[in-house]
Amino acid sequence: MLASATAWWAPKAGNAAHEYEDAFALEAAALRFAVADGASETSFARQWAELLVDRFVHEPPAAASLREWVAPMQATWAGANQPKAVAWYAEEKAREGAFSSLLGVAIDHGRWRAMAIGDSCLFLVRAGKIERAFPLARSEQFSNRPLLLSSVARGNQKVWDDVRNDEGEL
Q1: Domain spanning 20-169 has what CATH number?
Q2: Domain edges within the chain
């Protein structure tokens, strides 16, 4: 299968490029792609989102072992040289962890498989029409508080039961 991928990104309106808190990664030869939307109200969301997408494209998780797949990244995030916050509330926010959505897609033998945590979406478009939207299909399904993956284990208590998986033919 001949594959081509292009990624575009932009910071939120009014923010500079260095304030971009999302991430994407692709491994075109392996046909794996991932996007993550770092939660801007958390500390170091960009670093957490980058860890998630990079690991997905190099070592996609099995649904049954997602907790174990996330654990090494949580240790990396916790052990990273995070800048020391000067205000007590900023230090507390950093201790609470970073949060991000994650959407990963793998293509193999004419089929696609996707895994999603949160509200980053995949759209399968054929002949100019949306054939499938995953994990959310309608605008009213979006909220201001999507379920997100945390860089701190205690922040993922509600996540594991809500991981979405889907697949289909190309």
Answers
A1: 3.60.40.10
A2: 20-169
